[in-house]
Amino acid sequence: MAIHQILERFSRPGPASQPAAREPQDARIRIKGGYEPDTIFARAGRPLRLTFYREETASCSERVVFPAFGRSAMLPPFQEVTLELLPEEAGEYEFTCGMGMLRGRLIVRPPASRD
Q1: Which residues of the chain have pLDDT under 70?
Q2: What is the pLDDT of residues 2-28, one digit of tens each?
Q3: Which domain holds residue 73?
Q4: Strand arrangement, sheet containing 80-85
Q5: Looking at the domain assignment, is residue 41 inside a domain?
Q6: 27 exposed, middle or buried (CB, 10 Å; 0-12, 13-18, 19+)?
Q7: 3 in a domain, yes or no?
Q8: pLDDT of residue 54
């Protein structure tokens, strides 16, 4: 193989050189009398990994619910729990505790432009 063929092979755009559009977005949420932060920002079309840490034993906060995504998770006290979502469309989505008393918002922005 000639040197120009080798260089051509390695200079082609591939997954490593393209924007990280599918890399997960991460957010950490602390729960103690409410969600902190209570507003999470994400980009549409990218996986979202939410890590919850519940610093209380109140039964109200033992479950988090994302109705628009049809997802929920039990949150044992003093343990990290990760919930993954894929927000497909931009918009504002509510999340709550199982009783609907604690509330938060997930604000999904349009995908980043590829300038």
Answers
A1: 1-22, 113-115
A2: 554 444 444 444 444 444 556 789 999
A3: 22-109
A4: 35-36, 25-31, 48-54, 80-85
A5: yes
A6: middle
A7: no
A8: 98
* Bridge partner residues of 112 (DSSP): none
Secondary structure letter of residue 105 according to DSSP:
E
Could you give the CA distance from residue 49 to residue 76 in angstroms, rounded to a whole number? Answer: 18
Please, are residues 31 and 61 in contact by the beta-carbon 8 Å criterion? yes
Residues near 50 by beta carbon (within 8 Å), at least 6 away in sequence: 26, 27, 28, 29, 40, 82, 83, 84, 85
Domain count, the chain: 1
CATH assignment at residue 49: 2.60.40.420
Q: Tally the residues of the chain.
A: 115
pLDDT at 4: 43
In a domain, 39, yes or no: yes
Peptide bond into 15 cis (omega under 30): no
DSSP secondary structure code for residue 77 in this structure = B
13 lies in a domain? no
Q: Residue 61: what are its φ and ψ, rounded to 5°? A: -95, 15
